[in-house]
């Protein structure tokens, strides 16, 4: 495969959890994958396990004013950007009335503002190329009400709305925008949350028709589908990878 033919992807939060699984799957498919994260140690470990197709960049996406130059540097170095996976995000579990304005702002800034700024800058590059795929990561919190995650729910509901609006506006320029809504996936982050709360874990499993947690690779396969020619005629969708959780009774 020539360098011209090889696809270039950015995966934010790509050094752990769903992002790492997605980066790994992309690399298996021969895609050069630029992993953006804040944790140097995790980035180093990811690079060691993923090999030469992984390029790790330590960067805080909360620094919105630095995102345009980050994207320009990536294009200078690698020539193009074919795929963007907006995976980086944080959660906060607190009773509604205990969530401060600062708490709410912090979650929205990380999960929404950063995604908007990075998507805007990458879309400019994709527009000049005449093609591209942007993949958002949503959540079951955007599908139904979950207590104690108000800020996270607000951010992920906005992501689903942005997916549709961006898809309509960017389609004429050959850019597709889709969203994956993971259900309850077995990762370190979810294990910590669910194992400390047996009642919540039982509720999750009882309303999931398939009766089990998903695996990170299930989300990675969905991301590869949206990144590839297999989904050429698909844009503006939200795909629940959730074992039926969002329609469970």
From TrEMBL:
Q: Which domain of life is it from?
A: Bacteria
> What UniProt keywords are attached to this protein's entry?
Oxidoreductase
Keyword Iron carried by entry: no
* Cited InterPro entries: NAD(P)-bd_dom_sf, Sc_DH/Rdtase_CS, SDR_fam
A Pfam family of the record is adh_short_C2
Which PROSITE patterns does the annotation name? ADH_SHORT (PS00061)
Any one GO MF term held by the record is: oxidoreductase activity, acting on the CH-OH group of donors, NAD or NADP as acceptor
Which PANTHER family does the record associate with it?
A: 3-OXOACYL-[ACYL-CARRIER-PROTEIN] REDUCTASE FABG, SHORT-CHAIN DEHYDROGENASES/REDUCTASES FAMILY MEMBER
| Protein family per UniProt | Belongs to the short-chain dehydrogenases/reductases (SDR) family.
The protein's name is 3-oxoacyl-ACP reductase
Write down the species. Mongoliitalea lutea
Q: What is the lineage of its organism?
A: Bacteria, Pseudomonadati, Bacteroidota, Cytophagia, Cytophagales
């Amino acid at each position: 495969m020539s360098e011209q033919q090889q696809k270039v992807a950015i995966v934010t939060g790509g050094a752990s959890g769903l992002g790492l699984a997605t980066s790994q799957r992309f690399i298996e498919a021969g895609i050069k994958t630029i992993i953006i994260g804040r944790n140097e140690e995790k980035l180093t470990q990811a690079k060691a396990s993923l090999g030469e197709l992984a390029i790790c960049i330590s960067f805080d996406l909360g620094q919105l004013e630095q995102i345009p130059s980050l994207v320009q540097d990536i294009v200078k170095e690698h020539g193009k950007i074919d795929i963007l996976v907006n995976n980086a995000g944080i959660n906060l579990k607190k009773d509604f009335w205990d969530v401060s304005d600062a708490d709410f702002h912090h979650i929205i800034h990380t999960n929404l503002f950063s995604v908007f700024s990075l998507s805007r800058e990458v879309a400019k590059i994709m527009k000049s190329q005449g093609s591209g795929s942007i993949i958002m990561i949503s959540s079951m919190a955007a599908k139904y009400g979950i207590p104690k995650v108000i800020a996270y729910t607000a951010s992920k509901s906005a992501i689903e709305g942005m997916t549709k609006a961006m898809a309509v506006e960017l389609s004429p320029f050959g850019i597709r925008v889709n969203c994956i809504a993971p259900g309850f996936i077995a990762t370190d982050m979810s294990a910590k949350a669910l194992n400390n709360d047996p009642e919540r874990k039982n509720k999750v499993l009882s309303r999931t028709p398939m009766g089990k947690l998903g695996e990170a690779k299930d989300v990675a396969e969905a991301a590869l589908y949206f990144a590839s020619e297999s989904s050429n005629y698909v844009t503006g969708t939200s795909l629940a990878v959730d074992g039926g959780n969002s329609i469970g009774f």
